[in-house]
Design a protein that fits this description.
Blueprint (H helix, E strand, L loop, with lengths): L9 H12 L8 H6 L11 E5 L13 H15 L18 H13 L5 H8 E8 L5 E8 L1 E4 L9 E4 L6 E4 L11 E7 L2 E3 L4 H5 L9 E5 L2 H10 L1 E6 L8 E9 L8 H6 L10 H10 L1 H8 L6 E7 L20 E3 L10 E6 L11 E9 L10 E7 L1 H9 L1 E11 H8 L4
Parallel strand pairs: 3-16, 4-10, 13-15
Antiparallel strand pairs: 1-2, 2-17, 3-17, 5-9, 6-7, 7-8, 10-11, 11-12, 13-16, 14-15, 14-17
Length: 420
């Protein structure tokens, strides 16, 4: 995992690391997040698995399995550190533990790239995923933006990105009640009780100004807002002794207030026609209407905090919820209520899309991330990579596709005994 270098206390850096390892995810699902349309509500989602074989996976023979194997090795770096008896999240009926994946990780490390296809065929059994009777679900995209920034505030860089406050407490409710799996709250402790944290409007108006939380300064509040949407970004420092250095700002926490999409009020107010709604359209409107932009952004009470990480592998993305570095076009975010991170998935979009304008996407991906908008068993967010081109791809992805989960043999045996 990249090394945190922000100048915070050791205890805070530890808390941030724990938050990342606990799977506090990137905020993803671009167009859906902006319009609040798409996935089946979690309470209506029922995962159904049906065994298939690799010969039934359209496009399997043509895929570059070595790329998927490289992405899997990133997951295995994390999984090998987890005790074998540690339960993994996902459908509790499967009862997956880290030990279920340790043997395939051992084999993955020894497998030559030219043998990657044979490795996956021998180590896993494919199971098609349905949501009840639905074979397809919403597939969206996300990316890691790259922008200019500074370590000091100036007229050119007036908008701050904040580190996680010392008193922010984030709680995974599923750690306390199985019925609350996948739900989180956050706040601060006051007189022994967890109370709501400051919302976006309060933070923008100065609620945290005396805390010294500023990590980096960006050209505009709109840049900072879109950084929060992605949950991670690269910043090219423009001045001072570090000029030219590329750093990564990675998700470190959230204030606990629910996410409110700003796309819908922009449609309702007549600012953007519904058929033209996109990330680019929202950003253009905000930039062209500076007097109203902050009020619209404040409609989203959610606020994200960051930590600074070293960019050790520029070809890879940020650490996802699993803490594995994301691989462009080979990593997806899934719903951890249904799926364990570190599993391979056969990902299919049956028609041309932003990520593949010449035809369908059919490729082996690794589940390495999750997110607030990723809900349901047939629901994934496709990591498109870094920078403007990746953003163009991610911002346009909103298609229905299918998922096939690859299970290690021991887990597959358990799956066969379940009445789905």
């Amino acid at each position: 995992m990249p090394t945190p270098i922000a100048g915070r206390s050791t205890s805070v850096r530890a808390a941030i690391a724990i938050a990342v390892l606990a799977g506090m995810a990137l905020l993803v699902g671009l167009v859906w997040l902006m319009t609040e349309e798409g996935p089946t509500p979690p309470e209506a989602a029922t995962m159904v698995l049906s065994e298939t074989d690799f010969g039934q996976l359209d496009g399997w023979e043509a895929d570059d399995h070595a790329q998927a194997l490289a992405a899997m090795r990133q997951s295995c770096k994390i999984l090998k550190r987890v005790p074998a008896d540690r339960a993994l999240r996902g459908d509790p009926q499967l009862g997956m533990t880290a030990g279920d994946l340790h043997p395939v990780c051992d084999l993955a490390e020894k497998t030559a790239d030219q043998d990657a296809k044979t490795f996956f065929e021998n180590a896993f059994i494919p199971f098609h995923v349905r949501n009840g009777s639905e074979n397809t679900g919403l597939m969206t995209g996300y990316y890691e933006p790259e922008m200019k920034g500074s370590r000091t505030k100036s007229e050119a860089y007036p908008a701050s990105v904040l580190a996680r406050p010392d008193n922010l407490v984030m709680v995974e409710l599923g750690d306390f009640r199985d019925s609350l799996r996948g739900q989180r709250i956050a706040g601060h402790v006051e007189n022994g009780r967890l109370r709501p944290f400051a919302d976006r409007t309060q933070i923008v108006e100065g609620a945290l100004d005396e805390e010294g939380l500023e990590l980096i300064w960006l050209p505009s509040a709109i840049d900072a807002f879109f950084l929060e949407i992605q949950g991670s970004g690269r910043v090219v420092l423009q001045d001072g002794p570090d000029a030219g250095q590329v750093i990564r700002l990675s998700y470190a926490g959230q204030n606990g207030h629910p996410y409110t999409a700003i796309g819908r009020p922009l449609i309702d107010r007549g600012h953007i026609p519904r058929e033209e709604m996109s990330m680019a359209a929202i950003r253009t409107w905000l930039e062209n209407n500076p007097d109203e932009a902050q009020e619209v952004m404040n409609l989203n009470a959610s606020f994200v905090f960051f930590t600074e990480l070293v960019v050790e592998h520029p070809e890879l993305g940020p650490p996802g919820a699993q803490s594995a570095l994301l691989t462009p076009h080979r990593s997806i975010a899934v719903d951890r209520k249904h799926h364990a991170l570190g599993l391979p998935f056969w990902f299919e979009l049956p028609s041309a899309s932003a990520a593949s304008p010449d035809g369908p996407i059919r490729r082996l991906m690794m589940a390495q991330d999750t997110g607030g908008a990723i809900r349901g068993p047939v629901r994934a967010d496709y990591f498109a990579g870094v920078g403007e081109q990746a953003g163009d791809i991610a911002g346009q992805m909103q298609d229905r596709g299918s998922l096939t989960m690859l299970l290690p043999h021991a887990v597959a045996e358990r799956a066969r005994k379940i009445t789905w």
